[in-house]
Design brief:
By secondary structure, the protein is of the alpha/beta class. The chain is built from eight helices and five strands; from the N terminus they run E-H-E-H-H-H-E-H-E-H-H-E-H. Strands 2-3-1-4-5 form a five-stranded parallel beta sheet, with helices on both faces. It is globular and about 45 Å long. Bound molecules: adenosine-5'-triphosphate, (3R,4S,5R)-3,4,5-trihydroxycyclohex-1-ENE-1-carboxylic acid (SKM) and magnesium ion (MG). The site of adenosine-5'-triphosphate has 19 residues, from helix 1 and helix 8.
């Protein structure tokens, strides 16, 4: 099984994903990290040089590769904008169990105020930008997600406990009618 995490930049996908994988003993992969290895520079630099659409093309390719194959096991942290492309939404939903890490723009702003690594948040008014992103993307995250968790306030450990419990529940559910 592949567990994918989606949500706004700063919602905790990388942080939660890494620790979730550790707790499950599964491999962890962050699609942003795979993309950076492939392009040989930071996503920020790539955005500045080639524009967003070129970045999205690579992202789509990487998501396809990371979710291909029916026997994949792992935790996949995605980039904040992964849901923008319908092909990504479809692949993630069909090939993995998707968790939407939902946080308010205000909670994320509080966390990311001093972080210069997110290209979409480098403008004059990052909080306003986060609110726009939330408005545009919330329906897309909700569409792709099998489960939604609020990640603005709870600690990482509490969130991990909730996600692990949900995975156990849905796993036992899926075996309910298996009499073999
Ligand atoms: N539940 C949490 N409680 C407190 N801080 C958190 C929590 N989750 C994440 N953080 C912190 O918030 C920041 C952003 O988290 P993270 O990098 O995991 O977000 P992300 O969803 O992967 O963002 P991006 O889409 O930009 O990759 C980090 O500094 C992280 O340590
Ligand atoms: O929210 C976004 O559109 C992005 C978020 C990051 O994870 C990166 O994937 C990239 O900076 C784009
Ligand atoms: Mg991340």
């Amino acid at each position: 099984m592949i567990v994918s995490l989606v949500g706004l930049p700063g919602s905790g996908k990388t942080t939660i994903g890494r620790q979730l994988a550790r707790r499950l003993g599964w491999p962890f992969v962050d699609s942003d990290h795979v993309i950076e290895q492939r392009i040989g520079c930071s996503i920020r630099e790539y955005f500045a040089r080639n524009g967003e659409s070129a970045f999205r093309d690579i992202e789509e390719q990487v998501i396809d590769e990371l979710t291909a194959g029916s026997d994949g096991v792992g935790v996949l942290a995605t980039g904040g904008g992964v849901v923008l492309r319908p092909a990504n939404r479809q692949r993630l939903r069909e090939r993995s169990r998707v968790f939407y890490l939902h946080s308010t723009p205000e909670d994320i702003f509080r966390r990311l105020r001093h972080d210069a690594s997110r290209p979409l948040l480098q403008g004059d008014d990052p909080l306003e930008r986060l609110r726009q992103l939330q408005e545009e993307r919330d329906p897309l995250y909700a569409e792709v997600a099998h489960f939604t968790f609020e990640t603005g306030r709870p600690t990482v450990n509490i969130l991990l406990g909730k996600i692990l419990m949900q995975l156990e529940l849905s796993d036992s559910g899926s075996h309910k009618f298996d009499t073999s």
